[in-house]
Amino acid sequence: MEVVQRLTKPCFWLHECISDAADEAMIEIKLSHHQFHYIDEETSTFISKDDIKEFLLGEELNVSMIQTFMRLLYNDVRRSSQPIFGWLCPSFVRDDSCVQNEKEVKVYLKDSLNACSRLGYKIVLLPYIESNHWTLIAICVSSNEVYHFDSLRKGTIRSLLVKSLLNSVMKKITSSGLRQGKAPVWYLVECPVQEGGLACGYYVMRFMLDIVNYCKDVVDLRKVYASSIPRLRNFTKEEIDEVRDKLASHITDDCIG
Q1: Which of 103, 140, 142, 206 has its CA 20 to 30 A from that of 173?
Q2: Would you kindly state where each structural domain of the chain is located, as residue ranges?
């Protein structure tokens, strides 16, 4: 009860909306192939009552919650006259998929990044989970660069299963009519560092929100991020609450029937 009383208004309303639902109830979230480049016209992910309880308690976020946040960002920015952001699906590209379905992941990356290049997207965002830790990969196809946002960074880019697959694919990506022919340059971005072991998903949501709001220039995403958002400290409670509230409002307003 004490936890419920501390919830912000959007999160409290989400709690109220699902409190009477059956334990096995699932919320269907429709995902567009225009955003994630699925073969099918439309795909769905599902959020359970337990997923929402964990979210309201500030516990680990699963892939469905991250996908839903990406969906709301996509809806927010697609009305732009010159959209510059592309998106890769974190359920297709994750650590277990890289090990068990390497060929399928490479095909998805190749087809999706080629589509993003043709559409003129400058930054392609991929929330990526490995060993239960969320990080954000921002891919700039035109400059053949990859930027890694890691809220548990330790001075060097952590070893990622997806890195070799992405390097292999980007060597063959066509941008501005030319094949890159070489692996991308990877950069570790100086970004806020989390406290505790459960905040990585919320930090990744905040990274994406800030990039969409402030990073329109990709000459060097590290410099743009640092100059637009001059903070190398932890995110404040208010900054994390903002993304939590946006996600809670999206679920209650747009996803619960």
Answers
A1: 206
A2: 2-255
Rounded to 5 degrees, what angle do the CA atoms 123, 129, 133 make? 120
b or e along 190-209 (b: 16 or more beta carbons within 10 Å of the residue's beta carbon)? Answer: ebbbbeeeebbbbbbbbbbb
Mean pLDDT for back-to-back runs of 10 residues, the chain (257 residues): 78 90 89 88 89 92 96 86 86 94 94 90 94 94 90 82 94 65 87 85 95 74 66 80 96 83
Query: Rounded to an integer, what is the distance from CA 66 to the centroid of its chain?
Result: 6
The dotted CATH code for 2-255 is 3.40.395.10
What is the edge-to-edge ordering of all strands in the sheet holding 85-87?
Answer: 85-87, 123-130, 133-140, 145-149, 185-188
Task: Report the interhelical angle of 9-19 vs 237-250 (nearest 10°).
Answer: 40
Q: Residue 180: what pLDDT?
A: 62
- Alpha-carbon separation of residue 205 from 44, 133, 245 (angstroms): 20, 13, 11
Token readout for 182 is 């070489």
- What is the per-residue pLDDT for 105? 95
With a CB cutoff of 8 Å and minimum separation 6, the contacts of 79 are: none
Q: Output the pLDDT for position 142.
A: 84
For CA atoms 208, 214, 218, 220, the dihedral sign is negative
Sign of torsion over alpha carbons 162, 168, 173, 175: positive
Q: What are the distances in angstroms from CA 129 to CA 58, 113, 136?
A: 17, 19, 9
